[in-house]
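Supplementary material to the annual report.
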Amino acid sequence: DTAVSQTPKYLVTQMGNDKSIKCEQNLGHDTMYWYKQDSKKFLKIMFSYNNKELIINETVPNRFSPKSPDKAHLNLHINSLELGDSAVYFCASSQAGTSGGYNEQFFGPGTRLTVL
Amino acid sequence: GQNIDQPTEMTATEGAIVQINCTYQTSGFNGLFWYQQHAGEAPTFLSYNVLDGLEEKGRFSSFLSRSKGYSYLLLKELQMKDSASYLCAVSLFTGGGNKLTFGTGTQLKVEL
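Predicted assembly:
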């Protein structure tokens, strides 16, 4: 059974297009995340949702809009794609954190986005 | 601000021991994670430290000193399959979830 799944695995598209990436987790976790890993392999958080509520919103262009229809799903929609959006996007999930508590994040397989 | 430093690359011999260091300066701290990432794959959890000291898990150990802002990951009896990127990440509790801030990763190459 796949714990955190993402679709599609690869996405090649033209500049200016709009695209979506879907993520689902079957771990029963309350919190989900989107990360971007650039060509230098630097992994940076973009968004986090807890029980469908946005709790982390890093400095990300508003062309990126996350949507969480329920706590098992977190989708990422990107408008007007730019060359610089080319990267690997990872979805992750965890139990809700507690101050001083441990909550491991489980990552999906990633979506490699290439903007031409 | 958040600043996490790791060496970019390391090379070690199969069967040897290697130590990967991580130093951090962050506003807030709720633990430090180490993740392993093979090329083209997702990061996978290796270890977590929130208190000072050593945590051991099989061939992998991780150490934390909060006062020094320092952690290391120790890999023993290196195997070829240990060739991967090792990511140090500081956790900050944000309410409802932990925000992980990652270092740039250390690319470890294990040679015969």
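The mean pLDDT of chain A is 91.
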